[in-house]
Amino acid sequence: MPFDLVPGATIGILGGGQLGRMLALAAAKLGLKTHVYAEDPESPAFDVASMRTIAPYEDEMALTEFAGTVELVTYEFENVPSRTASILSAACLVRPSPETLAVCQDRLAEKEFLAAASIKTAPYMKVDDAGALARAVAQIGRPSILKTRRFGYDGKGQVLLREGADLAVTFRTLGGTPAILEAVVPFAKEISVVAARGPDNAFAAYDICENIHENHILKSTRAPARLPKEIAAEAVRLTRVIVDALDYSGVIAVEMFVVGEADGRGDARIELCVNEIAPRVHNSGHWTLDGAVTSQFEQHIRAIAGWPLGAPNRLGAQEGEHVEMENLIGEDVLAWAKILGEPGACLHLYGKAEARPGRKMGHVTRIVPSPIL
Amino acid sequence: MPFDLVPGATIGILGGGQLGRMLALAAAKLGLKTHVYAEDPESPAFDVASMRTIAPYEDEMALTEFAGTVELVTYEFENVPSRTASILSAACLVRPSPETLAVCQDRLAEKEFLAAASIKTAPYMKVDDAGALARAVAQIGRPSILKTRRFGYDGKGQVLLREGADLAVTFRTLGGTPAILEAVVPFAKEISVVAARGPDNAFAAYDICENIHENHILKSTRAPARLPKEIAAEAVRLTRVIVDALDYSGVIAVEMFVVGEADGRGDARIELCVNEIAPRVHNSGHWTLDGAVTSQFEQHIRAIAGWPLGAPNRLGAQEGEHVEMENLIGEDVLAWAKILGEPGACLHLYGKAEARPGRKMGHVTRIVPSPIL
Prior knowledge:
CATH architecture of the largest domain in chain A: 2-Layer Sandwich
Radius of gyration of chain A: 20 Å
Number of helices of chain A: 11
Order of helices and strands of chain A: EHEEHEHEHHEHEEHEEEEEHEEHHEHEE
CATH topology of the largest domain in chain A: D-amino Acid Aminotransferase, Chain A, domain 1
CATH class of the largest domain in chain A: Alpha Beta
Distance between the termini of chain A: 45 Å
Helix content of chain A: 25-40%
Largest sheet of chain A: 9 strands, antiparallel
Largest interface: A-B, 44 and 43 residues
Oligomer: homodimer
Number of domains of chain A: 3
């Protein structure tokens, strides 16, 4: 198979946060250069990139110049404006594709895509105005969640609709923009499948991630998730259906709810319900940096470059072992010195100056039980 | 213990080759910025550094500016001019110290330091001119090796002195600079100890490295070295004596010859003879990137920052497992695509444009037997 990139090539990365930073570090390991394009002059990815562009994502002149310096563009967030994606894809490879972006950056398009692939999601309805919201509530009931179709992350752009809440006020709270109303899924646990697909259709999934959120932000991940084997296999199968339908290239994360009994006995009815698709490396895959043969960041670079995928095998895979990743959010990061002193704890800091509340400052990975104690 | 650096601080790195590059990558993982100072505009470390200075190591104005932007300076090579080290250390911390540099950049000073610490080396004599060379040959015999006192690496700056060679011509071949004559040690194998010491006297050694050289360049390393336990322990003890005597901060590599029977039976007489001290991260420690809990690069950053040392434990440490590192020298690197397709092989490329003969282009690490086959 011909490779799309050779060592020494430059990958453009849209977005300069910690995901862009860890992608740039992985590219460097493989002898590739990176050009990071981001709006914020303080973007942490700039510190490890060969080239930097500070410009808005709508700056067509800057985008054209950027595209002229790179062989391929990828991104760390799915809210890349479609005009941006089309300017870039006219000049160079964009992976994952602009078509994938279009699906994954719009909650309605994503839900419709999943429905077309016969994949179960929470019941939902399109909400374009307060009247539509009233009709959706009549159908879906309460509590339910009103979510903007675009630009949501870490709980932003969504509001829980309880009994008695004024619908018009709620709709205005979210900015009056196109939205969807989703039923609340009574899940037993949240999982994600982090997997990669190459342009040649190669596929590799990591062990399923079991995720704990706090205040809508991922707090910790445990791999492998505690699930009956057949449910884990089904989660991977659904992911494969999704990447094939998208003709996907790169690492993807598919968040799912596990509904029903999930205690491993396997005799009760368990269902998987896809919550969200992230067409990129994902926080729940950070454990792979220290806990897998190939990290999700290297895997993404391999996949978009058209290179063979790396082994996704977990380290710490002896009987009774698992891997834990804990996010350091806001002032959690003040524990850095203590974590450095903890034998076997692998600390990652993102180089962000201010530990603002809710800001992801770093993470720590542990193989449990620690192999070195 | 107070830490000398906090996350967000900037570490200056003298030298922009692959060692500087991998140090910069490790610093970034820990939330530190780097400023790489190197002469060559094509230095591979520039691609992953927050700041770059392209200037000669003797440029006092550039050095002063550089020192003003960093909290601490370290280096990837020991031939830092002493004037350079003293300008820098007047402005900020330099680790390892300028005193250590002075010892390790001069083969004579290094040998005398080792002798003072009662550590065995090859017999040697100081050679300042052709007459001294004749006297040294009379004492040490042939074959022996004439080595310049400074600026030698990968076999450069040394010549094997055989029977019949003209001494005056040989001395001129090496540039007529101060040198030493060393006896040839009939070694059974070459090993190195890669270890770290913190400013608080913390110490951590990796498993002993067993090294194979080709054309004076490291070709491969195997960890752990096949040695009787008591010899391995003695190698670590000697390293500890060395770092304590130097009041060392950082990662160090001590190359040693194993003389005598080294087949593990332990009944023959085995001696260790120190060949060279590298006051820095070292090629024979590259396996730690994929084969140890903490890489030598992260360990060096931790040590010079005054942070707790990380666990040096080997991965792939089940019964019968070991780690192998193979250098990709010159056109070896053309095998990159094949290596990418090898399950479990961890490929590192240094981002160098030209695969010149003898040039270190990358390396590959394998845990043997592969845990994923």
